[in-house]
Design goal:
This is Doubled CXXCH motif domain-containing protein. Residues 227-263 form the Doubled CXXCH motif domain. It comes from Geotalea uraniireducens (strain Rf4) (Geobacter uraniireducens). Residues 1-23 form the signal peptide. This protein has 263 residues and is mostly helical. The protein folds into three domains: 1-64, no CATH class; 67-180, no CATH class; 185-234 and 243-263, no CATH class. Helices cover 15% and strands 4% of the residues. It has helices spanning 41-48, 100-105, 129-137, 186-192, 228-231, 255-260, and strands at 4-6, 9-11, 92-93, 174-175. Strands 1-2 form a two-stranded antiparallel sheet. A two-stranded parallel sheet has the order 3-4. Bound molecules: heme C (4 copies). One heme C binds at residues 21-22, 130, 133-134, 137, 158-160, 162, 180, 182, 228, 230-232, 245, 251, 256.
Length: 263
């Protein structure tokens, strides 16, 4: 891992495969594992806070998210793999495919665009990994709030924050209306929409070397729900097919999109 500091931003000098388009603070090689990735908070926090050493005092990497004992598994997340990061308490607004303004005058997730088959119930749309991701990507929960300690660094950059709090005030702060839909049954949509691939089909239309899955079901929480982890590999797992930014299928030629969409 080699970092170059140029005019206030870090750029990658690695392997050529890491795309500058997604360059965050930490440059990395896709597929090289979590330690050298943007998800190693010990690399990220000192850079983000201008050199202050507020990483883990033992430089533990997993600890920001997992711990072997005394986990923080109580909270709103339905899925807590030995979870050790403070969980977001926000409610999130779903993608409905219509103007946010129109939706907000009379919020009802059944009031959606004509083309959208997915029915996203805000009450359970964050099931599975999604709520865990938003426990750092919500712009409200401090990145260094883990092991029960109150952290102090909450990023504001669009690169990290997907759903800024308070977009509409009050409990509906987390706005995911302008993001790819998550938190719905993929199987139900595939049964209705002929341009969505069947979840159990062998993904033969994407070259095997460009994806880290054989069927779409493998990408879905409990084999059915589309979540953040359907597209993203949080651990940047060592595998030649991984792609930036932490994706499970390569983005060139929009292969990730064509994994599910028959377009
Ligand atoms: C930035 C947060 C983060 C860090 C750091 C992290 N994980 Fe995870 N981990 C997650 C999330 C989120 C999930 C659930 C998402 C999923 O299953 O795709 C998960 C799931 C897991 C799982 C269960 C699912 C599976 O993939 O087997 C294991 C085991 C795991 N992590 C081990 C580790 C280890 C070991 C480390 C450190 C070397 C680590 N993780 C570092 C966030 C993290
Ligand atoms: C412990 C906090 C934490 C958790 C939990 C977490 N992230 Fe992140 N993630 C970050 C931070 C901080 C960055 C920005 C790092 C940087 O800019 O170098 C980041 C960066 C990213 C990036 C951009 C990577 C790139 O190439 O620049 C993606 C994509 C991402 N996270 C997705 C996820 C997903 C999906 C999950 C859940 C499965 C998740 N994150 C969970 C803290 C977290
Ligand atoms: C349908 C696939 C898909 C889903 C679902 C998805 N993402 Fe992404 N995400 C992407 C792609 C593709 C990019 C890169 C977009 C680009 O820059 O062209 C990305 C980029 C990001 C980035 C980096 C943003 C930046 O500006 O650099 C973060 C952080 C992120 N995603 C987090 C999440 C989280 C958290 C969730 C769940 C709430 C999620 N993603 C759900 C496909 C997805
Ligand atoms: C894991 C499977 C999967 C991946 C990967 C994926 N999508 Fe989707 N996407 C879906 C499903 C399922 C829906 C809901 C379709 C529906 O309701 O008819 C959807 C919805 C959409 C919609 C909204 C349709 C509407 O009617 O409002 C668009 C646009 C879209 N996806 C584009 C993309 C793009 C672009 C990418 C790549 C960056 C991508 N998708 C990646 C499964 C996926």
């Amino acid at each position: 891992m080699k970092l170059n500091f140029i005019a206030g931003i870090f750029v990658t000098v690695l392997a050529g495969s890491a795309s500058l388009a997604f360059a965050g603070l930490v440059s990395y090689s896709p597929g090289s594992g979590v330690i050298s990735s943007p998800h190693n908070m010990n690399l990220y926090l000192p850079l983000a806070t201008g050199g202050a050493n507020n990483g883990d005092n033992q430089q533990q990497v997993c600890k920001f998210c997992h711990t072997p004992h005394n986990t923080l598994s109580t909270g709103q997340a339905s899925y807590s793999p030995l979870w050790n990061h403070t969980q977001t308490t926000q409610n999130f607004l779903p993608y409905v495919g219509i103007e946010e303004g129109d939706y907000m005058t009379e919020p009802d997730y059944l009031d959606k665009s004509a083309s959208l088959q997915a029915v996203i119930d805000p009450a359970d749309m964050m099931d599975g990994p999604s709520r865990l991701c938003m426990s750092c990507h919500d712009g409200t929960t401090a990145i260094d709030s883990y092991s029960g300690k109150m952290g102090s660094f909450t990023p504001t950059s669009n690169h990290v924050v997907l759903a800024p709090d308070g977009a509409f005030g009050g409990a509906n702060g987390g706005n995911l209306m302008d993001d790819h839909p998550i938190g719905f049954s993929y199987g139900k949509v595939a049964a209705l929409d002929p341009y969505i691939h069947q979840p159990n089909a062998n993904i033969s239309w994407i070259p095997a070397g460009d994806r880290k899955c054989t069927t779409i079901s493998e990408l879905l929480y409990k084999g059915d729900k589309l979540t953040c982890a359907s597209c993203h590999d949080v651990h940047n797992t060592a595998n030649a097919t991984a792609a930036a930014p932490l994706l499970r299928v390569k983005l060139d030629g929009s292969k990730l999109c064509l994994t599910c969409h028959d377009k």
